[in-house]
Amino acid sequence: MVYDQFTATRRRVLASGAAVGTALVAGCIGGDEGPEDGLLYTQEVNPEGDFDPIISNDAYSAQVIHQVYDGLYEYDYDLELQPKIAAGDPEEERDGERYIIEIVEDAEFHNGDPVTADDVVHSFTAPIEEDTDNRPEFDFIDVDGTEPVDEHTVQIDLEHPYGAFTTLTVATYIVNESVRTDDRDAYNTNPVGCGPFTFEDWTSDEYVELERWDEYWGDPQPELESVRFEAAEDDAGRVSQILAGDTDAIATVPPEDWDQIEGEEGIEVHRTESPSYQYVAFNCNDGETADPDVRRGIAHAFSMSEFVDANLGESATPMETPIPPIVDDLGWDFSIEEEPPGYDPDEAAALLEEGLDDPDDWNPTVIVPPDDVRIALGEVIVSRLDELGYDAEVQSLDFATLTDTYISGDAEDYEMYILGWTGGPDPDVYFYNLFHEENAGVTQGHFYEGSDDFHDNILEARETADQDDRRELYTDVINEIIEEVPVMPAYSEHNTIATQEYVQGKQPHPNVSYNPELVSDENNVSLEE
Fold first, then answer.
1. d(CA 157, CA 141)
2. Average pLDDT for 293-314
3. Bridge partner list, 203
4. Which UniProt keywords apply (predicted)?
5. Which residues are CB-contacts of 225 (< 8 A; sequence separation ≥ 6)?
6. Per the count of CB atoms within 10 A, which of 4, 128, 156, 383 is most buried?
7. Distance from chain centroid for Cα 284
């Protein structure tokens, strides 16, 4: 859905990337000359440049997409889905294998085309037919049975019941089928959506400019006249820009700068819990970390909770399972029997000595994105391994290189990698995308084979509608992950935004791909003196 829609596929991982100089445009849209009618928003990373939601696969492009497109349904601030282009709730038929959804009659695209059932069908089936990176979010849909009933009614057939269909999949952005299929490449960089802002200009690694659509069909009408997205590669760059008044808002307030920014006159800091999941994954396919004792030894070598407390403080919550706390609290309440590996250097030394084939010749590599916190986590792991006598190293790779590297499964490339995932209010988006064998080499790089039931349980839970049955299956999966340690869950980072005080109506959304949430039933951002 993310990536998001809500689920992230392999590039929907959160990372840091290239920098731009926002001072060049300060005062043109907000900035140090005070508020005008446009918002300058500084992201952590430049969008990859895919603005077609059928193929877009990173959170930063998704943040632009959210302003340009409307979803069939969209999440409110409680992560509950509300109809947007849909006229009401889905009507279930055939024991959860068919859904009938009516759409509103007045929705229009930016070029004046009406939004029809054909557009909805295309938005749900194109990721499968074109085999895009977003296919795992839709591959249970029966393409042949998904069709318009009439101009404003769509029938979506599933190959099997999917428990998360009405909580994840229906939050799909709707594209203009005729314009998109006429020239897919052009549509990707000059999209025609039906959201509150039109796509005006984009220069790779520099900026994206949007303008208010004065004929927006939905409510409320946007207050802002324009939005400009830029990015600052490093935390210090974003902090200096907000403190100097060179930007109206920045994403992700660095934990070490929280007190300074919050105490600065004229600046406000906003925070909300999110369904994000940061983790350390092991190469379970090749190299020494294919042995679970080696993975357990590394997990015992340091304290994840101490690292999170020291480096993130109140900006994140430590995790012991692959399910973010905000998701677990939405009616799942997993009861886990296995105890995660805790800090125990003696046990770490013993397990590594026993598990390694050649302890004297083990030089593991940890690959990480260019993000200060995840670099620091990699350095903690390396430092602890060095203390135990192993010559480990951290490699910080740009995001594109990292995503091409971690799916290789080659121990010469890495034995550990640190990445993150942004998902939705259902465990399926974490387990299926990040652990099931069908996504090996696509949305995961650890290639974990698992027990005889591991992958079957994930798939059965995915194809089951009853939540109690799904909870039981997922509980077995979680216990195996804790015991066998194909990954170490790290932390769930809160969504944070700092704004100049003249930015009104701004609250970060739990779904990072919705931020900055500019126009919704619950807020409407404006700039006021």
1. 6
2. 95
3. 207
4. Signal, Transport
5. 37, 38, 211, 212
6. 4
7. 24
CA–CA distance, 102 with 74 (Å, rounded to integer): 15
Q: Of the candidates 348, 202, 356, 294, which has an alpha carbon nearest to the alpha carbon of residue 485?
A: 294
- 3-state SS assignment for residue 310: helix
Find where tokens 């430049």 sit. Answer: 46
C-alpha 50/C-alpha 191 separation (Å) is 10
Q: Show contacts of 48-53: CB within 8 Å, 24+ apart.
A: 48/11, 48/400, 49/188, 49/189, 49/202, 49/204, 50/188, 51/188, 51/189, 51/191, 51/199, 51/202, 52/175, 52/180, 52/184, 52/187, 52/188, 52/191, 53/5, 53/123, 53/134, 53/172, 53/173, 53/175
Q: Go through the domains of the chain in sequence order and give each one's CATH number.
A: 276-493 (3.10.105.10)
Q: How far is CA 452 from CA 17, 91, 271, 285, 456, in A?
A: 39, 37, 42, 17, 8
pLDDT at 445: 81
Sheet (strand 153-157) strand order:
91-93, 98-102, 153-157, 147-150
Averaged pLDDT for residues 304-333? 91
Which residues, at least 6 apart from 346, have a Cβ–Cβ distance to it below 8 Å? none
Report the relative pairing of strands 365-368 and 416-422 from DSSP bridges.
parallel
Q: Burial level of 157, CB count in 10 A (0-12/13-18/19+)?
A: middle
| Phi, psi of 296, deg, nearest 5 | -65, -40
**Residues 516 and 524: beta-carbon distance below 8 Å:** no
pLDDT of 36: 60
Amino acid at 512: V
- What's the rounded Cα separation, in Å, for the pair 183 and 200? 18
Chain centroid offset of residue 258 CA: 23
Residues 6+ apart with CB under 8 A from 109: 115, 176, 179, 192, 193, 194
- Are the C-beta atoms of residues 520 and 76 closer than 8 Å to each other? yes
Are 38 and 29 a contacting pair, CB within 8 Å? yes
H helices of 35-190, where? Answer: 59-68, 117-129, 177-182, 184-189
Tokens matching residue 190 = 């000059």
> Over the range 248-274, which residues count as b (16 or more CB within 10 Å of their CB) and which as e?
bbbbbbbbbbbeebeeeeebbbbbbbb
What is the Cα–Cα distance from 162 to 330, expressed in whole angstroms? 18
Question: Which strands make up the sheet holding 197-203, listed edge to edge?
Answer: 197-203, 207-212, 226-231, 38-43, 249-251, 495-500, 267-272
Widest CA span in the chain:
69
Q: Residue 334 is encoded by which pair of tokens?
A: 């997993």
pLDDT of 377 above 90: yes
Q: How far apart are the first and last CA of the chain?
A: 38
Q: Token pair of 164, please?
A: 């998360």
Residue 487 corresponds to which tokens in the numbers above?
A: 């990954």
- Mark 337-359 as b/e (b = at least 16 C-beta within 10 Å): eeebbebbeebbbebbeebbeee
For the segment 385-394, what is each residue's pLDDT rounded down to a tens digit? 999 999 999 9
Q: How many CA atoms lie within 13 A of 135 on its CB side?
A: 13
Tokens describing residue 228: 């400009």
